Amino acid sequence: MEERLKRLKNAMNNHTFRQVEFTDIHRQKINQQIEQLQEEDVSKVLLSLLNQAKTGSELIQLLHIRGINGILNNEGTVFTILHEQEQQGVLESYWSENNEKYYKLTKKGQKILQKTMLPKTSGELSVKQLFHKVMPNEN
Amino acid sequence: MEELTYSMVTTANPEELIDELMRTYGQEIQQLVYAYVHNETIAEDLTQEIFVKCYKSLGSFKGKSSIKTWLWRIAINHSKDYLKSWYNQRVKVEDDFSYIVEEQRDSIEQKIIQEDDDAELAYAVMQLPVKYREVIYLYYYEECSIKEIAKLLDINQNTIKTRLRKGKALLKKMLEVPQWKND
After folding, report:
1. Sheet containing A54-55: which strands, arranged edge to edge?
2. What angle do CA A14, B84, B152 make, to 5 degrees?
3. Is the dihedral of CA B145, B44, B18, A61 positive or negative?
4. Does the beta-carbon distance from A15 to B122 stay under 8 Å?
5. What crossing angle do the helices spanning A24-49 and B40-57 adopt, rounded to 10°?
6. How many angstroms separate the CA atoms of B4 and A93, rounded?
7. How far apart are CA B169 and CA A72, in angstroms?
8. How far, in Å, CA of B92 to CA of A139, rounded?
9. Domains of chain B and any CATH numbers
10. Is the Cβ–Cβ distance between B96 and B178 less than 8 Å?
């Protein structure tokens, strides 16, 4: 049996895995999902930060502090999201005397924030649970 | 295999890191998952979920094991969770269809088996119960050491050795008395 099992790699490659192929299309599909996740992450956190007015650069700093993956090497996305949210009436912006642009939640934005706070907590829980399961010896 | 190091994990853009992981290990992961679930479509879906899960969990990777080990553990646990899941165990509609397909496939595979020793071996391994199949797969296909398997599966080394022995005994039985010779 031992001798025969030495051929298992060959055997499975030629038979079992003949139809199993991880293609570029699969990879791109996953990349798209991740990109979407990143945007969702960033916009959720942005909402939670904008109960009080803040400037774009303050927001970026705070996102970095929170370790939000989606903005690493890609800070521009913050402004894209701010712009979109403003157009949807979630945020409003104004210029201060020092000529800095501030962003703040509108009433509509505050309502949305209250609703999204719940799923956000449960999301964090599930990641913790995952890690408890995946690497109990490593944390 | 350890070309992806901890420093890369901490410095690289997470999006690029996952992309790199997929390029390096995507095929191996999908095969590993297939070895558990024995279904191409499900293996594709689960592989997708596994890499998204990795992305979400990247912040908690501490570099205490290699990133490959970490990725393998996520993949193995995810595949097993699927096998244990309510969906997999209760949704019988799909089973009914696959039963028919399986029957056809069996007879085709039996034909091939008569001609090909390797096919016979590969087929037999995929018929093993999961707890034996996984250790046989990791040891003989992936060429992991007993110690590595113990780490991947969170099971002690003696249990792994026992399962390897029993798995081999089962395989021997399956391969000694091929069904078509009963005719």
Report:
1. A54-55, A101-105, A91-95
2. 60
3. negative
4. yes
5. 40
6. 43
7. 52
8. 39
9. 6-87 (1.10.1740.10), 93-175 (1.10.10.10)
10. no
Inspect the interface and report whether the beta carbons of B15 and A38 lie closer than 8 Å.
Answer: yes
Which stretch of A76-85, B13-22, B109-118 has the lowest confidence by average pLDDT? B109-118
Mean pLDDT of B17-25: 94
| Residue found under tokens 């000694």 | B176
- Is residue B30 very low, low, confident or very high in pLDDT (cuts 50, 70, 90)? very high
- Nearest C-alpha of chain A: how many angstroms from B90? 23
3-state secondary structure of A20: coil
B30 neighbors B43 (Cβ within 8 angstroms): yes
Residues of A in contact with B174 (CB under 8 A): none
For the cut 60, the answer to whether the pLDDT of residue B115 exceeds it is no
Query: Least CA distance to A27: which residue of chain B?
Result: B22
Can you tell me the distance from the alpha carbon of A123 to that of A119, in angstroms, rounded to the nearest whole number? 6
pLDDT of residue A113: 84
pLDDT at residue A130 in the model: 46
Query: If you count residue pairs, one on A and one on B, with CB atoms under 8 Å apart, how many are there?
Result: 134
CATH of A27-134, one of 3.30.470.20, 1.20.58.480, 1.10.3720.10, 1.10.10.10: 1.10.10.10
User: What is the distance in angstroms between the Cα of B2 and the nearest Cα belonging to chain A?
Assistant: 19
pLDDT higher than 80, residue B77 = yes
